[in-house]
Structures are given as C-alpha cells and as structure tokens.
Request: fold
Amino acid sequence: MSRVVVVGGGAGGLAVAARLAVRRHDVTLLEQAPTTGGKLATYRQDGFAFDTGPSLLTLPAVYRDLFLKTGGPLEEAIDLQPVEPGFAYWFADGSTVTVPGVDPARAAAAFGAALGGTAERDWRRVIERGGRMWQLTREPFLQRPLDGWRTLLGLARSTDDVRTIAPWMSLRDLGTDLVADPRLRQVLDRYATYTGSDPRRAPAALATIPYMEQTFGVWHIGGGLGGLADALTARCVERGVRVRTGCEVTRVVMQSGRAAGVQLADGEILPADIVVSDADARELYGRLVDAAPARRARRALARSTSSLSGFVILLAVRGRTAGLAHHNVWFPADYDAEFDAVFARAARPVDDPAVYACVPDDPRMRPDDDHESWFILVNAPRHGQGAGAIDWDAPGLADRYADRVLDVLATRGTDLRDRVLWRRVHSPADLERSTRAPGGAIYGPSSNGARAAFRRPANASPVPGLYLVGGSAHPGGGLPLVGLGAEIVADLVGRA
Ligand SMILES: Cc1cc2nc3c(=O)[nH]c(=O)nc-3n(C[C@H](O)[C@H](O)[C@H](O)COP(=O)(O)OP(=O)(O)OC[C@H]3O[C@@H](n4cnc5c(N)ncnc54)[C@H](O)[C@@H]3O)c2cc1C
Reply:
C-alpha cells in the first residue's frame, strides 16, 4: 500500500483517486477550489441550471467501468439519459439538419435528406473510416501509456493500417477527400474543436470522434453533467479517499531525486510515496515542480501550441424556442476565419463565430416549462499577454463580446435578446481562475500537427514517483479520454 496524494479534483483526479483507493492505497485528494469537479460543473440560480463545462457525454462505458470497479453501477449513481435527437445544425445558407443521437446510418440519412447530393454516402464513408481508425487506435494508443516509438509501431502493424490512419492527413484533408458538400465538411471540421484544435492541422484520426459519438450515443445526465462530479466525489469518499477542498498545492516536495509529497499554500507538508497531478501539465511543470528532469518536460510543453479556450454565456430565457435540439450549432459562412483568429499570433475574438448552444429539455434544469436555460459556447483565444493570447479582463471586453455573440445568433435567425432575464459570462480568464488551466486552454496542448498526440505530456513524468492524469496529459481531454487516462495511471502506480 502506498500513500498517494492527488493534486486536483477534476474528473481525472477523482477517477484516479477512486481507482487507487479500491487497490488499497491510502489516498488524499487536494483541490484548490471550494468544490471538486474542476471544469465539470453545473451552475444553478433562480431555478435555472447550466453545465458550465462539459455538456455532452460520449462513451459512458468508460465511467460504467470505473463505477462498477469501485463499488456499484454508474446508473445507480447518476441519471444517465440518451439524448434524442442529438444535434441540430444551422448553416449560413439557411439550411438546417437535425441529427439522431445514436446510429450512424440514421445520421447519414438525415444529412442526405437535408443536404441532398452525395451527403448520405459521404457521411457513411466518414463514419466507416472513423470506425476503422477507432479499432486501430483504441487499445494501443488510448488505453496504454505513451511509449515512444513502440506506441507508433503498435498503431502501424501493416501498410493498410497506416493508410487507414493516414498520419500525413489533417481532418480537413480527410473531409476534402470524402465529403463533397461544404456544409457537411463544416460538421466534420468541428470535431477538431473537441480537442481544442484547428481542423486544418489536427490529424485525420479525429474522425474517430463522430464515429464514437454516433455509434455509442450522445448522453445527458439528469439535472446537469455536474452530477457526474458529485457522484465521483461520493464514490471517492465511500472508498476512503480523504477529499480536501480549498487546499492549494504550491509545490511538489522532492527527496533523493523523487517526488516525496506536496506543500500546501499554508505551508503544511503532506508526505507521500506517489504524487498524481490532475493540474494542467503547464501548471505542474511551470510552477509546481522544478526538478531537473521536469525542466525538459517544461521546455517540450513550451514548444507545443495550447488548445483553444471557450467563451461561455449562460442565459436565463423567458419562453420556449421552436426547432431546438439538445445540442445546437449555428455555423458561419467562413469557418476558417474562426481558426485564423483563435490561433493567430495576433489572436482576437472571433467576429463571426460558430455558436454552440446546449438547451436541455430537462425539467430539473429550468424553473418551469415556460423558460429555458441556454449554455452558449464559442471558441476563443486563450487569456493572457503576448502572442496567441488576448487580455479577456480588458474593461468591457467580455460584456461587449457577449452582446456580439447574441447579435450573431439573431442574424442567423434565433433572436433571444428580448427574452433574456439575466445572463452570466465566463471568459477564458474566468476559466483560468476557477480551474488553474493556464490561459483557460480547455484541453492543455492542442492536437495541431501530426505528431502532437505523441508529444503530449506522458502519464509517468520524468520525475520518479510523479504521475500526470487529466485532459492536458496523454491520452487527451474530454471526459472519455480523461477517464481512460485515469485507468492508465492507476495501472502505472500499481506497477511502481
Ligand atoms: C467550456 C467547456 C466545455 C467542454 N465541453 C465538453 C464536452 O461537452 N464533453 C466533454 O467530454 N468534455 C468537455 N470539456 C472538457 C472537459 O471538461 C475536460 O477535458 C475535463 O473535465 C478535464 O478534467 P481534468 O480532471 O483533466 O481537469 P480539470 O477539470 O481542469 O481539473 C483540474 C483540477 O485541478 C485543480 N488544481 C489545479 N491546480 C491545483 C493546485 N495547485 N492545487 C490544488 N488543486 C489544483 C483545479 O482547480 C481543477 O479542479 C469541456 C470543457 C470546457 C471548459
């Protein structure tokens, strides 16, 4: 049995803590915020409820496995609900399509019926390719620690496998190859943003995401996805994890060249045999650990591009809106302008962004049937100074930009401006403050570039006794991958 300290109580930290506790380790989890959950959170006010981070759960099997192995079924811990239909897409030319939550064939038929031409066949080809990519990458890449060239070899056992994954292709290239309709290409491009990336630079292998989403379904949690954070926290406590909130870790304590505990902001030192960090890797290597091997990791991170951030508007809305699905996307005419603005050295808020809105038809998330809770998310450059960032705290900027987003929505046919009872804005700066993700980058390093996935911070750090879990480390961000990462780390700690 080892004494384990987990730094950070986001989905990754909670998941690994629960897994380590059932393996009889003595686990303490330290979270700087007043509550656990990190980005996974639901905000409540006046009977309205909004998911402020994840609003869409895919691949619940990852959390089913976690809950079963730590004491009981997921479905007993949360109110897991399939979302049907899954998405409504609005395009700049006025066309729309509503897509089923599960079943790629039905999704392809919906695209075909709405967009015409070869859209149905093209989408089938995308999903079929994404499925083959998923079969090839799931076990050797997503469920194992990064292992240098061995990871690459595991992915490429034959020339056919290499052709399927096509590491030389971007997601955009794949769309250009397989999809004729530019609107359907926008739908495919958008999946790059699930990793905070630019479709023109993110790998074609991200076609696994629509495959996963439509094959295993789009899921909601009754009352809000924050319910998963509560259930994970409860599971940790049941399994004997000491969960301490309001506890900021200021450094990893080193002894004889290995991690030997952590120091808290009030000076308290907690000794440990193993330290697992769920803090963003840039925060860990930049601020919390200064051992020589960590400096190399810090330099490598400095060379990577951060993922994009998100600008969030929560709207308490009077009345009901016709034609909405649970998840809604209004695309601009020029989607590339968005990625140019977000990833430019002279980054700027996107003038005409794709607007995503989650409006759950969930009685537990609105005061009554005559109101709606809108969570609006648009891609945004990260917060900060210098190249690739903007100062989201500049006076008036966040409010002006929220007005702009509502104006954009109105020009695309959905005018909420007279029905808004109140609104709250969460800028990338707010995300940085609440979760300590540098710049509010949602997914740590982006997947921009063919080798980005292999250069993510590894789960076993170069510092003995120090491990990384969570969205900024391998295998990546988003709830499913973060859950898979927690399993990898629990196995690594078991072997240490
Ligand atoms: C707006 C938005 C929308 C998203 N949409 C989706 C979605 O629809 N579906 C999906 O699957 N994913 C989505 N994601 C991504 C998903 O939320 C994350 O990938 C996942 O929740 C990350 O979990 P984590 O544990 O890695 O990190 P975090 O949730 O960031 O947790 C890290 C924790 O560490 C704590 N911490 C940091 N430093 C310290 C320190 N020094 N001492 C103590 N504690 C510390 C932080 O306070 C935080 O609680 C979204 C994220 C955002 C922000």
